[in-house]
Task: structure prediction
Amino acid sequence: MKARARVIRSLSVRRVQRAFRIAPQDLHHEGPASFGPVARPRIVWLAVSDGRGHLMRAQLMRQLLDGAGVDVDIVTTSDAGAEFVRSFGAPCAVVSREFGIHFDGQQNLRKVRTAAGMFAYVLAPGGCRADLRWLERRAHGAALVVNDSFHPALLVAGLGNGPLRDKLVHVYGETLRRAVQSFWGQRGPYADAVARALGRSRACIEHSFSEGASADPGVIRLPPLFALPRRERADVRAALGVPPGGRLATVYLNPYFHDHALAAAIERSLAVAGYTMHGVAEGFANRPGWHARDPALVEAVAAADLFVSAAGMASLGQARTFGVPFLAIATAQPEQRANLAPLRAAQNAAGSRCRVVDVGADLTSRLGAALATLDVDAPRPDPRHTVRRLQTRWIAAITGLISSSTPQEETS
Result:
């Protein structure tokens, strides 16, 4: 634990820049990275494909770390997830497809089915153990192995003494960690095992809206990560067909949403309120106004007069940073229920820029009532400096962990 704390305290952007000053002719290599003075370090980043937030973070970090002289090898848990990553121009491998979290078409957790699948995956000879061996081979020579977030094979690796343990960096949301650890109750063997796996790893990166450093010296606390909008707001709105003086609603729903009655309720309520809708949802891609994915989604969110989404950490982070009025779709998803608590408390304040609507009966009228009371005309901040700063903090965290494990630390 003391060694992990020294690693966390050693992180600095300037040190990172010195550690990874690499000649242009050495920027590409074939095969696994070695750790000579001119080789690019390599990270294996396992991002589970549940939702798409983990994959979005992985492909964005691949882009950001490339500029710092680091290669990122993305691995995920489904073919659809790999296709999502490839839509951003990044290669992506798939470990076995045996593990996953199960929800219904309105993103309500199916706990019994999820638990049964988890037990089968961990205990079956061709499941968790086979995936761990596959990951060990793929991570040979890698500087770090990132577990984003809570894939059982890498939790098991953290409990053992195998070749991955000292390279493991767990990346997760603060509320997701609480939800995972309390899956079988606040206390017990499962919660203890998860805590031990995290505690024995090289480091943890916990994205959170909490201010200040974590009380755990082995945890790097950072704000949620997202991309930088490049185009001007007016250009994005024109490209999306928003008429002069009109209002834009950007809607994002992850692949667990595939109940078309929910989509129809959102469409009707936004149309009545006079919004042009830009919808992104893999489950509704065959409906007019919806797209399976949008690599420039962050720009559509920043340009919108209203953002409609479930309460994932990245969605909340974008709404806060861009100052976009937020309409949260609330479901029985444990992590997001925790994220929603402060929104529910804030929505009754004067001039509130957020509303929470639970899925269920009479959804169209309840969405309409929420839209009618949202403040969508308040001034908006310029988010670019904030986004660049948080990206720099993420780059520094990862590259600092790499430099602390190589001979470069002694010469930097």
Notes: Residues 17 and 362 are 55 Å apart (CA to CA). The domain at 233-381 is CATH 3.40.50.2000 (Rossmann fold). The chain has two domains: 2-227+388-411, 233-381.
